[in-house]
Write a structure and sequence with these properties.
2 strands
Length: about 140
């Protein structure tokens, strides 16, 4: 019975290593596909800029730039597209730190980069309509 258990555990470790390798390979293919698409169409998704020297904080910002807006989505992006391993608690802690550094901000849709968050203070949001106000030139023309 012990030999069977050892064999199954070894097989599981081997499969896990293969999955990790395949995820890294898939991340490279995804980046290549996005790069090719960006050459053909200016409206295509952002090209991933993953490098082996990218920190997890940089990768989290990259994930947010690519539409991941919750810690769970960010973690999935790191694992699936950048072949990085971390934990959900680590992502949450880093998201909080990145938020305090103003590298990402919370919006009604989740985490976004600062330039993506609608400010609500532009000219459109503070425009005075003038309804109910009259000027000397208002009123019927003779």
């Amino acid at each position: 019975m012990v030999n069977i258990l050892e064999t199954l555990q070894a097989q599981r470790e081997e499969i896990s290593a293969q999955i990790k390798s395949l995820k890294k390979e898939m991340a490279k293919v995804d980046a290549a596909i996005l790069a090719v698409n960006s050459m053909d169409d200016s409206t295509s998704p952002k090209v991933l800029t993953y490098t082996s020297k990218m920190t997890i904080n940089q990768a989290i910002v990259e994930a947010v730039k690519n539409g991941s807006s919750t810690p769970k989505e960010i973690l999935a992006f790191l694992e699936d597209h950048l072949a990085m391993s971390t934990t959900i608690n680590s992502v949450r802690t880093r998201v909080s730190r990145l938020s305090s550094e103003k590298k990402i901000v919370k919006s009604n849709k989740g985490w976004v980069t600062p330039k993506e968050k609608p400010s609500g203070s532009g000219p459109e949001s503070s425009k005075v309509t003038g309804e109910g106000h009259t000027s000397p030139n208002d009123g019927p023309k003779p």
